[in-house]
Amino acid sequence: MSAVSLKWVDTTLQLKGSVVKAIYKNVLWCGIFGFFVSILHHLDKPVSQPILGSVIPSIVLGLLLVFRTNTAYERFWEGRKCWGSIVNNVRNLARQIWVSVDEISPDDKDNKIAALNLLVAFAVATKRHLRGEAVNNELEELMPSSKYIKLKIMNNPPIEVAFWIGDYLQQQYYRNCINSYQLTAMQELLNNLVDNLGSCERILKTPMPLAYAIHLKQLLALYCFLLPFQIVKELGWWTGLITALVGFTVFGIEAIGLEIENPFGYDTNDLPLDTICKTMKSNIDDLISLTPSARSPENNATY
Fold first, then answer.
1. DSSP structural state of residue 156
2. How far apart are alpha carbons 252 and 247 in whole angstroms?
3. DSSP characters for 83-127?
4. N or C end of the chain, less CB within 10 A?
5. What is the 3-state secondary structure (H, E, C) of 254-297?
6. How far apart are CA 187 and CA 161, in angstroms?
7. Are 264 and 86 in contact (CB under 8 A)?
8. pTM for this structure?
């Protein structure tokens, strides 16, 4: 129980990953303004206006914040599902290529390894594409230099990598290294990778409507501005502190939604895309270290 309690305390006091840095200025302004209103009230100025509580009902603001947060989390979770699907399709396609493609010439094994590295390159290119970053040496080590140079001038590098993988599969079919059923199954997995790329692009390029975001911020500012006038009579000198706490709550919820609506960046709460890509590379390296049982052309024909 003590270990659980310590972990709870550590999590509660943790700043990394929280939105405190993003909202602390707004919270301070709320507290300062609330303290200013309490001074005016102490000087017998007519600042106590409980009726202002009906201007923006708390339930309306709460529903708007819940909708904002739920919408952002749906985007975050859909992005995670897309990347989970990318991982699964890369593993399945790599396994099928490694096991099913016959090695007829001495170079076939090297070509298979190059194709498997292109699967990792697809994931890395997708990651960098979603982050708006250019092709770099992270991709250079996963492909021949000729392909790397060509990839640097492409507008959508993941699509080019998917084309190279599909071209490799088609070549193996023409060489009778795989049959039509195997080709169809592998192309389906490759299509799934491209579909996941499109889903991630849809999340990235469809932000929260600007009018909604602006209106929500305006309501938050107005609510925190009116709050001290509603509570100063009952709370007196505590008005600034309570206003700051309320501001911390509502601005924090809004900031969380803003942070997770684009899950492909470098923020602490974004998806760990670098780790996911490294995991895929490790999986491919493990697969390459395995030696599948030899298959004869006759066995392939009846697959």
1. S
2. 8
3. HHHHHHHHHHHHHHHHHHS---STTHHHHHHHHHHHHHHHHHHHH
4. N
5. HHHHHHHCCCCCCCCCCCCHHHHHHHHHHHHHHHHCCCCCCCCH
6. 14
7. no
8. 0.85
